[in-house]
User: Which sequence fits this backbone?
């Protein structure tokens, strides 16, 4: 992210953001009060944070294929596990929001695009009655995530490979999806394509969450395109993530929310 873009997008978010006093739509008001602004109480979250801390203290390195850059060539690079755990994955606050939302909406069929170490997957699968499918292209990260998730969860499947290929195959036979987190390829075309593909397996209550909506000019464009999509009704911009609903019973509205 360019520093200029980051500052500009944050100022714009900060100027536009509203709080509970501006929320009149009952669904948004309740979601904001009960999930987004709620203190996250689940004791399971502390255990997940202990695992994050262990990764942060790791001295290991991994070979990571950068499939998210869109390069056709192999862009394998060696990265510290501690750097990935510190800078490369969803922060606690947003993982907790997603886990609480899954609980609040009683979502069952969950998809995560981009597993990395599996930390956020632990949040998404915190409720045993969920079925979480998570996608990762880097073999070394799949190994780490599998080791963690096989030990901690019975309700998670990790699908290895490039999402460009694995996602359409999965969707051919998947059940309808309740919650989808887009956190892999942060490029305009890939974001739109994955959204379009997942829409086909969505239903009126499905929630789509996009990470890094203000990361770059192209992610801003992708976010604008999503907001204007004819099936999209409600969108919530929390700066780091964007939350999307397609429920036709909700009024088409776009909120920028203070957290
Ligand atoms: C930001 S990380 C995911 C972090 C994870 N959701 C979390 O919060 O813990 C993005 C991951 O997506 C993977 N990725 C990016 N593009 C991909 C693609 N086209 N196919 C498969 N995996 C991809 C990367 O290897 C990386 O591990």
Assistant:
């Amino acid at each position: 992210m360019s520093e200029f873009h980051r500052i500009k997008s944050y100022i714009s978010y900060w100027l536009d953001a509203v709080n509970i006093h501006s929320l009149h739509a009952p669904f948004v008001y309740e979601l904001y009060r009960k999930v987004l602004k709620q203190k996250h109480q689940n004791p399971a979250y502390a255990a997940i944070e202990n695992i994050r801390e262990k990764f942060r203290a790791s001295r290991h390195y991994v070979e990571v294929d950068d499939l998210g850059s869109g390069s056709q060539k192999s862009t394998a690079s060696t990265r510290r596990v501690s750097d990935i755990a510190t800078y490369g994955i969803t922060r606690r606050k947003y993982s907790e929001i997603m886990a609480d939302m899954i609980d609040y909406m009683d979502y069952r069929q969950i998809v995560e695009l981009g597993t990395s170490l599996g930390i956020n997957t632990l949040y998404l699968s915190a409720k045993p009655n969920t079925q979480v499918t998570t996608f990762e292209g880097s073999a070394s990260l799949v190994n780490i995530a599998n080791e963690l998730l096989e030990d901690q969860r019975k309700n998670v499947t990790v699908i290895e490979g490039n999402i460009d290929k694995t996602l359409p195959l999965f969707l051919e036979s998947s059940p309808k999806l309740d919650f989808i987190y887009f956190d892999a390829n942060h490029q305009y075309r890939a974001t739109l394509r994955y959204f379009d593909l997942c829409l086909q397996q969505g239903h009126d209550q499905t929630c789509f969450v996009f990470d890094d909506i203000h990361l770059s000019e192209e992610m801003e464009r992708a976010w604008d395109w999503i907001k204007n999509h004819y099936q999209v009704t409600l969108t919530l911009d929390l700066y780091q993530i964007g939350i999307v609903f397609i429920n036709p019973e909700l009024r088409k509205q776009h909120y920028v929310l203070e957290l």
